[in-house]
Amino acid sequence: MQIYRTSFAFRNREYPIGSGKALQFIYGSKQAKTKGGLTATTATTNVYRSEQFKHTMEDIRSQCCSPDEVIFGPDCRQSLYCHLLCGLICSDEVQIVSSTFAHSLVHAFRTFEQVWEELCRDIREGVLSSRVTVPAMRAAVSKLLSPNPGLADSIHSKCSRLSDWCGVIPELWPNAKYVYGIMTGSMEPYLNKLRHYAGGLPLMSADYGSSEGWIGANVNPSLPPEQATFAVLPNIGYYEFIPLERPEARPVGLTQVEVGKQYEVVVTNFSGLYRYRLGDIVRIAGFRNSTPELQFVCRSGLTLSINIDKNTEKDLQLAVEAAGRLLAEERLEVVDFTSHVDASTEIGHYVVFWELCSEAAEGVLRGCCNRMDLSFVDAGYVGSRKAGAIGALELRVVRRGTFQQISDHYIRLGGAMSQFKTPRYVAASNAEVWQILCGNVTACYFSTAYSL
Ligand code: AMP
């Protein structure tokens, strides 16, 4: 709550808001009881369920448009539909459009493109769509709904006028001041699409935290998300930093980090009960009032590697981005992506899975596959490709909706939609996700980049 308030203070200085509401795409997840009788759930669910959350949201003028029955509904798809509906009903009051991670925002508006006419119908007739079947959610949202043909017509005509949904957020929520959520790290690939939906509205990257402990606040909210930094709040946890260049060295303290260097973050929570390696790499961008400002670099976990090659999540992201520029020329885009190392044959190769917004011509995809292969510039990879010690990169295109199936899978296991991050590497041992991917492949292409 403290970090929410701190970053709001900085945000409000740049973009002041009056009293109003927030269209927040937030979702609680399942709760379970441990053998000892404790309630176990995800961090965001604990936050949303706490009494303090409501008070904090009121204080920082970010009260959610949707009732609790929507936030804590058992079916995220129904909750998303209701969030959109509640947001439209209070469209004049909405000043902030937000979610925890940018992925949920993009997912929400991609869904809006599919369901907007149904939403208009609900508002026109004052009757909730039959797709919402959870009784408590139906009852709570129906209470907010009454026939409003004027609003329905206005939404309908605004949507019909938009070109490819560009600027849909400011069009439908004319008093929104900004779009807010975590947009750094593995959320960067969604920024293009989010900018498209946000039109001229500023995108503001939210704070840096984790279930294990919050870390830093974005105290320069006017910087574009690509340049966002996070000032560590030293009173909310105990932080240590493992130098990336000397992982065997002892971790250094908060004031001993050096500007420009990269570290892995270790957090010890309030109670001192655990000390946890987050698996995140950060760069020290500078100091502010003696506390370091961190720039998120990437997760340390994913490394595509076959022999001497080594590519991180960031390298994968850059390769997909480079190939994505070829798609943009065709007005196409990558909805989501992940990767895999196929070592089942004598000479292993990288596999990249893509979900596209619509069908692409074979020639374009072949070009993208080659571009990705050439975009992994790590010397170990390039050398091995030239020497034939790593096989041709393979692009596998999957059906529309595949990545939604993957997120549904994690949510069924008790994960939180609000915390969902697409896994950027999937091993065959992750059997269910692997099957979802392989069962949805519609086309495969092998790079010819190094055989020319
Ligand atoms: P969770 O595992 O769901 O608790 O999410 C925590 C992880 O999300 C962190 O360890 C980071 O990898 C990622 N994360 C959280 N905040 C940010 C941020 N502002 N920028 C980039 N990644 C973030």
From TrEMBL:
One Pfam entry name: GH3
Highest taxon above the source species: Eukaryota
Residue span, GH3 C-terminal domain: 314-427
Domain GH3 middle: 231-299
An example molecular function term from Gene Ontology annotations: acid-amino acid ligase activity
Keywords noted in UniProt: Ligase
Coiled-coil region: none
A GO cellular component annotation in the UniProt record: cytoplasm
Family as reported in the entry's similarity comment: Belongs to the IAA-amido conjugating enzyme family.
Identification of the protein by name: Indole-3-acetic acid-amido synthetase GH3.5
Organism name: Musa troglodytarum (fe'i banana)
